[in-house]
Model the fold of this input.
Amino acid sequence: ASPMAACDNFEAVYPSTTAQLFHVLRRQLKRNFRKPLVIMTPKSMLRLPAAQSVGSDFVQGHFQRVIDDPDAKKAPLISRVYFCTGKYFHELVAQREIVADHNCAFVRIEQLAPFPAEDVESILKKYRGAEMHWVQEEPRNMGAYRFVQAQMLDLFGVNPKYVGRPDSATPAVGSTKAHEKQAHANGEKRRRDNFGEGGSCSK
Done:
């Protein structure tokens, strides 16, 4: 979501499943025009069981710019919506399973630029009345937060609450053990402050 993406100059996507990756590449080749495509996805996604798609997902369907939470309950029961991207969605779902609370929805923005305004608007209407959040693994001054925040403010007047690491001068702490410790601490804080006391998604 760089300033160079203005005026739909190029596309930036963060596919969360193998089928999504297939369909965005297929879309790129089948179009009758060419536009630069930036795909952001970590190597760990190649080995992540939750990101693997079944065969029918490759044969049917198309690239989805926004994916609603498939396990969310009826919309009126959802008190919080967490927008996120890619790999982090799978980590959030795993945490939700541990605390066994499904009153929150995790919505994946698979295409960051051009911003999928119509798809996001549909989500906002569906979960009308719920608190909107943006959750990411990166520090607050990195990642997609500021870009998404600006888009949602300008287009819908919605300012999503930030959930994640504080501002940092570096994208990583430089130590695997320190990173895991920080990730664990952030996860505990997220459950207390945003998923409710005792690990609930709702307060």
Q: What stands out?
A: The radius of gyration is 17 Å. Residues 196-200 have pLDDT under 50 and may be disordered. DSSP finds six helices and eight strands in the chain.
